[in-house]
Design brief:
An 8-stranded mixed sheet has the order 3-2-1-4-5-6-7-8, sandwiched between helices. It has 6 helices and 8 strands, in the order βαβαβαβαβαββαβ. The longest helix has 24 residues. It has 220 residues and is an alpha/beta fold. 40% of the residues are buried. The protein binds 5-O-phosphono-beta-D-ribofuranosylamine. 5-O-phosphono-beta-D-ribofuranosylamine (GRF) binds next to helix 1 and helix 6.
């Protein structure tokens, strides 16, 4: 399965996907990394991993989002992806993109949606003093962080735990959830409404480190 990844930051989610694929746990090949942030960590990791296409697409001065999305769409379509993964991608993908890949764009969001949508999700949850935090993968639609939920993983927030520490622990859960979601796509088990068909489970797979105090199950 051909996967195109969009990222804007460190690229640790991209790296997790590459590592799980290299370990044979994810039957997918990342053939494109595109970013709006030239030189970001994801670009460095993509080059090191020899991803065939690494495309830096900074937004041009005065460029409308529609015009930007048209350039991004061209870049994506050139790679003919079976799945588009937003891995720490900070721009909103518009209807030109969501319309071109219906049911085939996945995002990882660092909160238990529908709670704490948008930017700074972990900071929102931390400020709200939640007892349980976590992350979600979902299909991307035109509604921000609102598409059908695919997988969620949670963890108990420790008393007095700082924001940094919580972000780190959630990020580790993301590094399980995103590759797991991509593998479910590779197995053709994800319906357009987000329902997941039964099949092989990852629970009990050797080498899957769950963050301490984390909760992840496979109810499918
Ligand atoms: C992280 O905050 C993660 O929660 C969110 O995007 C940010 C960057 O992650 N999904 P990455 O290290 O660039 O994958």
């Amino acid at each position: 399965m051909r996967v195109a990844v969009l990222a804007s930051g460190h690229g640790s989610n991209l790296q997790a996907l590459l590592d799980h694929a290299a370990a044979g746990r994810v039957q997918a090949k990342v053939t494109l990394l595109a970013t709006d942030k030239p030189g970001c960590g994801a670009v460095v990791r993509a080059r090191k991993a020899k991803i065939p296409a690494v495309v830096e697409l900074p937004k041009e001065k005065g460029e409308t989002s529609q015009a930007y999305d048209a350039r991004l769409l061209e870049t994506l379509q050139a790679e003919r992806p079976d799945l588009v993964v937003l891995a720490g991608y900070m721009r909103i993908v518009g209807p030109a993109i969501t319309g071109a890949f219906p049911g085939r764009i996945v995002n990882i969001h660092p909160s238990l949606l529908p709670g704490f949508r948008g930017l700074g999700a972990v900071a929102q949850a931390h400020a709200a003093r939640v007892k349980v935090a976590g992350c979600t993968t979902h299909l991307v639609t035109d509604e921000l962080d609102g598409g059908p939920i695919l997988l969620q993983a949670a963890l108990l927030v420790r008393d007095g735990e700082g924001l940094e520490r919580l972000q780190q622990r959630i990020l580790r859960l993301e590094h399980l959830l995103l590759p797991r979601t991509v593998q479910l796509f590779a197995e053709g088990r994800i319906a357009p409404d987000g329902r997941i068909a039964p099949g092989p489970s990852w629970l009990g797979l050797p080498g899957l480190d769950l963050a301490s105090g984390a909760m992840y199950g496979e109810g499918f």
